[in-house]
Design goal:
By secondary structure, the chain is an alpha+beta fold. Helix content is about 35%, strand content about 20%. The protein has 19 helices and 18 strands. It has helices at about 5-10, 20-40, 50-65, 70-80, 85-95, 130-135, 150-170, 245-255, 265-270, 340-355, 380-390, 400-410, 435-450, 465-475, 485-495, 495-500, 625-640, 650-660, 670-685; strands at about 190, 205, 225-230, 235-240, 285-295, 300-310, 320-330, 360-365, 370-375, 420-425, 455-460, 480, 505-515, 520-525, 545-550, 550-560, 590-595, 605-610. A six-stranded mixed beta sheet has the order 9-8-7-10-11-12, with helices on both faces. A five-stranded antiparallel beta sheet has the order 3-14-16-6-5. Strands 4, 13, 15, 17 and 18 form a five-stranded antiparallel beta sheet that branches. Helix 3 (about 50-65) runs antiparallel to helix 4 (about 70-80).
Length: about 675
Amino acid sequence: MTDEFDQLGNLAPAPRASSSARARALAAAMQAFDETEKNAARSKGSSWWPRQSSVLNRIWSTRMVTQHRYLAGSALATMLIIPTAALLTFELTRGNLPNSGQVALPQVLDAPKPTVERVPVPLVEKPAEPRQQEAVRGSDAAPSVQSSRQSDFAASDIARLLNKQEASGGAAKRSVAPVPAAPPPVMAERPVPLAANPRYAPTEREVLPPLEESRDRFANADTNPVKSVATDPVSTFSVDVDTASYAFVRRSLLEGHLPDPDSVRVEEMINYFPYDWPRPQTVDEPFRTTVTVTPTPWNSGTRLMHVAIKGYEAAPAAQPAANLVFLIDVSGSMNAPDRLPLLKSAFRLLVGKLKPEDKVSIVTYAGNAGTVLEPTSARERDKILAAIDNLRPGGSTAGAEGIDAAYRLARQAFIQGGVNRVMLATDGDFNVGVSSDEELKRIIEQRRKDGIFLSVLGFGKGNLNDSLMQTLAQNGNGTAVYIDTLAEAQKALVDEAGSTLFPIAKDVKIQVEFNPQQIGEYRLVGYETRALKREDFNNDRVDAGDIGSGHAVTAIYEVTPKGSASALNDPLRYGPAAPSAPVAVSDEMAFVKIRYKQPDGDTSKLITTPVTEMNAVRDLSAAPQDVRFATAVAAFGQKLRGTDALDAYPYRLILDMARNARGEDAFGYRGGFLDLVRLAETLDRR
């Protein structure tokens, strides 16, 4: 059946609408609008408003009929008096038709009087854009116009009704002015960090929140200088078996930025990796020393002297019983996925490694210390794991009180002839009570004399007090480990539990004397925070680092042969002539001395090793695989730290050296190192 409106539309010419027809159509529209407003649920306001709008429309109806140009404007003006004054401003701005005068509306009591900018909106013959139509209909409206959906719906209904009436009378159809889209929020842009694989370089820009300023704290130690053998022939330092620096450097690079140079401790990066140095054969020989001399890859005028120590590795069945106290930071700063939740998972792994005769206690601190678990046999594994699972973060950090409580439990469950150790797990934020590093150092030193050692496990980033972690671990005869992933917890607490928990020697010191007839200068790579005075070497009261079961320690010196053009120091004009050396020692380049104590001893023992050309290789490629890989790690660490000697040495040569010396890599540690070198090269170019 033919539509009556289509029949009317095809008439030529179309009949003109009478004034009475227009008045009836408008009255019907206004009545429908008033009924809608009257029956609509209101969150605030009163029923007075619909009545006023109805009266207003009746007053203006005659003028609207006779003056066509006010038709749509009046409908919108009638609708706009209902919402708030702010919405009134917005609707008037978009609802005025061209060639129309500004509609005068009655003043609303207690409403603000905004100044409305007149923006003429031209009539359009084509339909509005789809997005604009959706906004007019009220469906999927932008957030800025959602509050006016009811008004938009009423206005669009009236407009369609009026357009249909005009079509029946032959007048041109008019479309409602489109709702302006809400402007997008203004956000700062910064470049997208480069991907781990440089082949996937970004081509777009990403909107990211501003980076928060880091509050990580690291010890500020200057890089070791080049020293003249003529004036300073002896180098003395404490061993360092910590690995925290490498894990922190790795996390920084994987997050897309170069690490803080102070966070890079080259010796900890070198010692992060397991090396197959020659091992001692019996427990009477706690460790064995291996020295290798090679050319320096980044300086043709110098040589590298590797001093490697490998500790005796006791069989798991021969390891003594352990009395462990978990001292866990549950302060508010630990409330992050990479802190307390990761910490709990790490300790669960460690508990799974313990033997039935071992004991576990748990102390927490946050505002004040609390004992979560009294000394408990590792046989009661479920009880220990339940105590770990129930840990919750909150409060400030009373670290000193927690340390006191932990040592009290360690003394309570002390195992004579066993391992008695407090394991402090924290982000390093000690901000209540004793907070100075020196005071905490004093507390740890006093407890160490009782045979109770301290290890530190660091978590989190942005609030890490690495400097304090190092101080506590060094003075507690323990190790400092940084755990950024569960895989790192597996490495430190499970795979290397023997070296972490069971010491085979304590207060281990190394002293190297260089022969001035063979060596002109030397520089110790790393160990800046482990330097000792020359006289400290024979002083058994001076504390030093410990070596655990199966632990490997590597130190590297860059030495300048006598007469090399690469020497940085001029010979002394008025210095005493070097004494003639006996023929037996004239071929020695250096003499390495190591002092250590048994874990339960107080008197040190001495091990010595002369270094001659018999320890040297002419070409780096002829050096043992582990020596070459350790050299690559040393080069990488120095470059990240900003050491001048490595400025001109490119990352690609470090990468080639490490790749050629990768060898057997059961756990993927060396493969991961190759990825870090690639990342650092990409980030350094930026």
